Amino acid sequence: MTGFSSFYRSLLAAWCCAIASAAPAATSPTVTLTPSVVEAGSPELIRVVAPRGATLQGEWLGHKLEFFRGPADGAQFALAGVDVEAPTGPSRLEIELTAGSARIDLSQSVLIEPAHYRTSTLTVAPRYVAPGTAALRRIAAEKQLKASLFTKSAPERLWRGSFQAPVRAASTDSFGTRRIFDGKLASIHKGLDFRARPGTPVVADNAGIVVLARPLYYEGSCVILDHGMGLFTISMHLSRIRVREGQRVQKGQLLGLSGATGRVTGPHLHWAVRWEDAYLDPAKLLQLQLGALQ
């Protein structure tokens, strides 16, 4: 009888082991950044694999992270970045996951590497180096207007898939260049320049809402698109504007024509990318593979 009981106990144990082996293992939450090497000026796609139904809260470099759900595998994403003028060295990426009553800290240290940008000297019209009293009043009003617009990004993601260049023209490596104007005005070039001839069509780099479409002192005729969750793109120095403020546009839709308005040394398109108050390298945004995030 004892042997009979031992046999069934062994059989029961083997059956329980088989059931346990067949059960799927719980997936541990993971955080990945793309690109994996984080540089000053770099846009970053933050991916968090978490249980379905989990919520995420995060902050990085003093900015709140806005997460959205991906198309599969329970992953959530945030499109963020490091300002071109951000200090290099260790930073703290804060992420907290909540699933039911459980809270899990997914925070980690992120090293910000230096990006090596050039220095150049340019000559522009004197009125753009030392503006008069009336121009200074206009500049101040426009600065206030832009600051207000940048605080009112749509709460939801408006962009879909990868971003595209706004114009069919060669680009320069001008982002991040330290510029000296006539030896008097120093600035950091916070956009990407395209060698576009006057009248070249300029299109929406992705879906969004036109929040500004008007002439500005430095930017010339300018269009700003809000892509939601704190992300904006800016097209400057246009000769013509073909959209209106408040209009919703799709990727590839005509925004205007390139030109040489505002503070310029010649015809070109200046295209800038801004997340929260951080200016990011547009060329690196174009390199991000976002096609699965439709």
Q: CATH superfamily assignment of the largest domain? A: Glucose Permease (Domain IIA)
Estimate the strand proportion. Answer: 35-45%
Order of helices and strands: HEEEEEEEEEEEHHEEEEEEEEEEEH
Q: At the third CATH level, what is the topology name of the largest domain?
A: Glucose Permease (Domain IIA)
Q: Compute the gyration radius: what is it?
A: 25 Å
* CATH-level-2 architecture of the largest domain: Distorted Sandwich
Helix coverage percent: 10-25%
Mean pLDDT across residues: 87
Q: Based on helices, strands and strand pairing, what is the structural class?
A: alpha+beta
Low-confidence stretches: 1-5, 7-26
Task: Note down, in words, how this protein is organized.
There is one protein chain. Helix content is 17%, strand content 40%. The chain is of the alpha+beta class and 294 residues long. It folds into two domains: 30-113, Sandwich (Immunoglobulin-like), CATH 2.60.40.10; 119-287, Glucose Permease (Domain IIA). The strands form four sheets. Strands 14, 15, 16, 17, 18, 19, 20, 21 and 22 form a nine-stranded antiparallel β-sheet that branches. Strand 16 and strand 17 form a beta hairpin. The longest helix is centred in the first third of the chain and has 21 residues, at 2-22. Mean pLDDT is 87; it is low at 1-5 and 7-26.
Record the SSE blueprint.
Layout: H1 2-22, E1 30-34, E2 38-39, E3 43-49, E4 55-60, E5 63-65, E6 68-69, E7 75-81, E8 89-99, E9 102-105, E10 108-113, E11 119-122, H2 126-129, H3 133-150, E12 178-181, E13 185-188, E14 192-194, E15 201-203, E16 208-216, E17 220-228, E18 231-241, E19 248-249, E20 254-258, E21 269-275, E22 278-280, H4 282-287
Parallel strand pairs: 2-10, 11-12
Antiparallel strand pairs: 1-3, 3-7, 4-5, 4-8, 6-7, 8-9, 8-10, 12-13, 14-21, 15-20, 16-17, 16-19, 17-18, 18-20, 18-21, 21-22
